[in-house]
Structures are given as C-alpha cells and as structure tokens.
Description:
The chain is elongated and about 90 Å long. The protein has helices at 2-34, 37-62, 76-91, 129-132, 282-286, and strands at 143-160, 169-186, 193-217, 227-251, 256-281, 294-320, 323-330, 334-335, 341-351, 357-370, 377-385, 389-398, 401-405, 407-408, 414-415, 430-433, 436-448, 451-460, 483-494, 498-514, 537-555. The chain has five helices and 21 strands. The protein is mainly beta. The chain has two domains: 1-94; 95-555, Outer membrane protein transport protein (OMPP1/FadL/TodX) (Porin, Beta Barrel), CATH 2.40.160. The strands form two sheets. Strands 1-2-3-4-5-6-7-11-12-17-18-19-20-21 form a 14-stranded antiparallel beta barrel.
Amino acid sequence: MKLNIDQIEIKTLKVGVIINVIMAVCGWVFYSLTNSEALLLDGNFSFITAVSTFLAIFIVKEKHKKTVLFPYGNYFIMNLIFKITILVVLIFSPSHVMAQETNYWYQNFGAVSSLKGGIEAAGIDNPAAIYYNPGALAFMDGDYFDGQADVISLNALNIDNAGGKDVDLKLFQVDIAPSIFVFSRRLESNEKITFSVGVLTRVNQNYSFGLQHEQVGHYMLPNEDEEIFQGDYKYENRIKEGWIMGAISYRINENIGLGMSTNIFIRTQDYFKSYNARAFYKNEYQNNLPLSKLTSNSEEQKLNYRVMGFIFKPGINFDLEPVKLGLTLTTPSLSLGLLNNKSNRSQTSHLPDEAQKYYNESNAHSFYSGMYKTPLSINLGAEYQFKKVSIGFSSEWFAKINKYNLIKENSDSTNMMFPSGSNANYAIPVMANKSIINFGVSVVYDIKESLSYIGSVRTDFSYADTENLNTNTDFVPYISDWDLYHVTSGFEFILKKASITFGADYAYGHSNNKQQFVNMTNASQSNSLRGTIDNSASANFHNLSLSIGLNIELTKGNKNKPNSYR
Length: 566
C-alpha cells in the first residue's frame, strides 16, 4: 500500500511540475506584455515551485529510508523545502532591477550556460545552444527542456560628484527577473535534424534615482545680496527586450554540426530625465516677503520607444574529442519599426538681469517609427575536455554602429506645430555603438558523478561611444558607460534525467573622469543654473546575482550515445 501511495504521489508531483512550468511561462510572457510586477512574481514563484516539486519527486523515493540520524525516516525534508521555497519568494519580491544600459555580455542564459558566463561558443550540449551556437544542437539526442531565472539581483551604484562637488549618487536596488525557457527535440524521421524553440528575456533593467542640492551663495546677476539655490535632477530609464527564438540544426557527420536560429525581438524603452533649478533672495525668503526676483531653469527629455525586428544567428560546431570548436555569427538587427514612438525635449529659463531675459526651446514628435540597431558580431570558442576538468574559452567581436536616430518620421507622424528647438533634430534621440571585443574563460570540474563545480571569468566592456555622443548636449537615452568584469561560481547537481544548478555572478565596474550630470555646486545665472559641467565624476558599480536553473531530459534519442547536460 505504501508503495502504491508513493507511486500516486510521484505521478501527481510530475503533473505539478508541468503545470508550474506552464504557469511560469504564462507569467513571464504576460509580464513582458503588461509590465505587471505581480505577474512577474507569479511567474518566478511558479518556476521556483516547479524546481522544488521536481526535487520532491526524488525525496519521495528516499523519505522512508531510516538512518542513525533519522531512525523514523526523512519525512521532515518535504516540509523544509516547502518553507524554504515560500521564504525565498516572499523575501525577494520584485522591486526595480538596475542592470546596465550599454553592455552586451551583462546577462547570460541557461541553467549551465549562465554559470559558465556564456563561454559557450564551443562545447555547449544543452538547449541554451539556441542562443550561443545553434550548430551545437545537432549533437543533442532526445528531447530536452532548459529553464533558468535570476532568483535575486543586488545592485549598488555610487557616482562621486555626479551632481556637483560632493553631490554624490548612492543607489542600491534589488530585483528578480526571468532569463530563458527552451525546449529542443531531435526529429524521429531524420536523426540528423534537431529543432528548438524558446523565449528569452534579453534585457530587463530600470534605473530610477534623483539628486537634490541646496546652498547659499551668489547666483543672480547683478550680484547683490545672498541668494538660495535649489536644484533637483531626476532620471528614469526602463528598458525591456524579449526574444522569441526558433532554431534548426543539421549534423553533417559525427564531428560537424550546422545550425541557424531566427529570433524575433520586441524592445521597449521608457526614458525620462529632468533638471529643475531656481535661485531667489535669502532675506526675502526668511522674512516671508514676496520674491522680487527669481531666476530659474527647467529642462526635460522624454522618450517612449517601441520597436520589433529580427536577428539571425548561424553557427557551426566541431566535436573533435577531446577538443570542441565553435563559431557563431550574429547578424545586425532588421528593425520592422512600430508607429507608437514619441519623444519630447524642452528647456525654459528665466534669467532676470537688467534685460529680463527669457529662454525657451522645445519640440515634440509622435507616431514615429522605431529604429534599433544591433551590430554584426563574431563569437569564436574552444573547449578542451580533460579526465575530470573541461576548460573553455570564448571571444566575441562586435562591430561599430555609427550615430543614428532612434525614431524616424513616417506618413502618420505628428510634430509640434510651433517648435522652438535649436535645430530640426533637437528632440530626436540618438545612439552610437563603438566596436569592442569581449572574452572569457570557463571551467567545469566533476567532483563526482552527481556533482560538478562550474565557474568562469569574463570581460563586459561598454559599447557607449562617448567620443561621438555627448549626454549633456545630445538627446542620448542612457548614462552608464563603464566597463564591467564578471566572476561566476556555482554547482550542478546531476540526477538521473535532470540537472539542477545553483550559482552566483558578481560584476564590478569602475569609471574615472566621467562627465557630471549637472554641476549644482557651480551654478550661476550665466550658465543657466546648470553649472560648468566637467569630468570630475567617478563611478563604481557592484552587482551580485543569484540564479537557479533546471535542465530536464524528457526522452532519450540514441540510448547507445549518452548525453551530458553541458
């Protein structure tokens, strides 16, 4: 009877895994469409529950075993896992993610691939190959599922002198976000062909902060009595990019596989930046008198950006045991453009010297087509398999993208009837990417048959083209331009038909001689209360991301050729 009950329980738990995986996908998909943090929480809760339920299947098989430590059986374990699952989800509820705006290798995807730091151009043997090298899918036998999510991401950003001398930005944020969900299958009618489908959260970041400063000095012309200065700088930038992926691969022979993935991306960006400053006589304020003179400056930039398009990834993989080689080419994006893009930019100043000067500059655009350019990139990798250790290397070159407009006028576009911008492109956001090369090294050590250590180090250089773009004069919708360096470390627990990964990624970035956002400590009426902006700012960025991944072997294709999960 006990055995029958256990069998029923195992079957029920398997159904629970499937249902929770479906719920996780639904939560992530609708979160991408609605930006609802509640749906994101539901999706991540379902994914974590699916992983814990999968573990419970194996616990059911072991719970009746009696040991010296637990003479009545291991029945407590199920309750413990349930409590830990609830605790993880409740503690790490969604807030605001603070990723990077100008880094290609910031996020990596897949249960094992994320721990290897994306050093997967060669040697990858799991469904995440749809992203890293579709040619490697040709060597997978059977049906596989791969899911991975960031359980928690802790971010700290400090920028000294960001708003003026000793006006520093100190920011700390926490978030969780989905990463990848992939299924792959080898065709029964032709064992040389494997196809794969998946969804991917390529970018999910949100900067949101403010700087305020107040001081007493001389700001208005002509310089007379002491005045009070008040400045307020605000910045918000939310970027989301989701991919729907499909790939097919063909195994030419036992050593060579070719593949191609077609990726549909949808990218959204909601950007807002403002600066408001004013100066007035101190004695009038202290004596509650009407202000006889007030100088002020108000600036604003806003962008609501939506674009979709295609990115193609052809790849080739060579399995020359013990050496594996891989080459992946990523094509420049083909933007289809969406028509609901809008932007506006304005500056209004009142400079009450003897001439009572007023300054106004503004323009706005609506229903523009979106333009999003990604570069041509070439990723070359190699992996060598020793007895218990494998070492991998990847290097990816990204081409330069010249300065271009993020939105483009079309027949349905509308513009401000009476614009006062200094030129026709005053309110048009622009972007430019410099050419960079990233590289990294990964290591996998098989501690025992059921446990492996996985680690990696990699560069993540910023593609921000600061030589051709000026964030204080151009309409440039980003602020981060620092290079990052990553270290990842974690473990893979290999079960009979699955593997579960737990790990962490630490990233550090630093930038000296960075341009200030504003210089409120050097404000005056002659510089419209913005101050003389210099390059005295310096930035320090820290990120710690904890992730959990699940890789399931649904069916085995060739029983005579065992398949590893990496």
